[in-house]
Design goal:
Blueprint: E1 9-12, E2 21-26, E3 29-33, H1 41-54, E4 60-64, H2 70-73, H3 76-82, E5 87-91, H4 95-99, E6 122-124, E7 129-132, E8 135-141, E9 150-154, E10 159-163, H5 183-195, E11 201-204, H6 213-228, H7 231-250, E12 252-254, H8 258-264, H9 266-276, H10 280-293, E13 297-300, E14 303-306
Parallel strand pairs: 3-4, 4-5, 5-6, 10-11
Antiparallel strand pairs: 1-2, 2-3, 7-8, 8-9, 9-10, 12-14, 13-14
The chain binds zinc ion.
Length: 307
């Protein structure tokens, strides 16, 4: 990596289940952007504390969330307990969804994911700036994957904190146009808006940092247009992604329970009823086959085991 982050910024890379963290030092206080998935809070707390220690034990005084998916907010409440006085800032456009906690749009219990509810102290609005690590960052609205999400851009260092709006090879899921006719078009507009930025380094919500911003935008846009041409492709992508995500954080599932599972979990029940129109047994079988084919699972002793 030829582009270095300024010294007051630390990138803490996680994985697909827990979103990456970015930490900033401003004088005697630290800010954390995004807090991972709740099941892995022990790892999150350890990583955050390690950075605070390296910064001579300054306190964690603020959390900023890019959006409200479980893998980005899951550590909010636990971190606030561990760091009393730590405030939480959320995007203004997420406020209604947080008041109306766990609606299907949040893809929380609706998609068999968990997150501890939290209270917030401040909101960040598109167009506002925020000082992090001694630099001014612009909050840019990036609706699509999440209709209320924000990314952060520093014109001085030309770094983009892209959350799930843009990854090196793709972007966070969008819902089918038959479910929400706005999300795909919003994601397309988000790519157009991002393309106007002068970016030398991207810190994505998942995966390593990368420098090929225009290449990533091209790959993401191509993927989006392939989705736009075939809504069923989005449908399959969403249910497969949600199923594998749940399998991975649960580590294993009992195969015989899966027909009742797909009937109980909203995204599987509703998408099957609307798009696949299969029996619960056939739909569960299909999900298992897809998880095996993707190399994300194996079968052992009546269980589906995450790989
Ligand atoms: Zn997300």
């Amino acid at each position: 990596m030829s582009v270095q982050l300024p010294g007051a910024i630390r990138f803490l890379e996680r994985d697909w289940l827990a979103a990456n963290h970015i930490m900033f030092r401003d004088g005697d206080s630290a800010t954390l952007v995004d807090t991972g998935y709740g099941k892995f809070n022990d790892v999150t707390l350890a990583k955050v504390n390690e950075t605070l220690s390296a910064w001579r034990d300054i306190p964690l005084s603020r959390i900023v969330n890019t959006h409200i998916h479980s893998d980005h907010i899951g550590g909010n409440a636990a971190l606030q307990r561990a760091h009393p006085g730590c405030s939480i800032t959320i995007p203004l456009d997420e406020e209604a969804a947080l008041v109306n906690w766990d609606s299907p749009d949040q893809m929380l219990s609706y998609a068999d994911q968990e997150a501890e509810r939290f209270t917030w102290d401040a909101v960040l609005e598109c167009g506002e700036t925020i000082t992090l690590g001694g630099e001014t960052w612009q909050a840019i609205a990036t609706p699509g994957h999440d209709m209320g999400s924000l990314v952060l851009y520093s014109p001085k260092s030309r770094v983009l904190i892209s959350a799930d709006a843009l990854w090196e090879n793709g972007f966070g899921f969008v819902v089918p146009q038959a479910i929400n006719p706005n999300s795909l078009a919003a994601q397309r507009a988000t790519f157009k808006r991002l393309a106007e930025l002068d970016v030398v380094l991207v810190i994505p919500g998942h995966g390593p940092m990368f420098t090929d911003f225009s290449g990533a935008l091209k790959r993401a846009s191509d993927k989006l247009e392939a989705f736009a041409a075939d809504d069923m492709r989005i449908v399959r992508n969403v249910v497969k992604g949600m199923f594998i995500y749940s399998l991975m954080w649960r580590e294993s599932m009992i195969l015989a329970d899966l027909p009742s599972y797909v009937n109980r979990i909203g995204v599987h029940r509703d998408y099957n009823a609307q798009f696949f129109k299969m029996s619960d047994e056939a739909f569960a079988d299909w999900l298992v086959t897809e998880a095996l084919r993707a190399g994300k699972a194996r079968v052992d002793g009546g269980r589906l085991i995450a790989l």
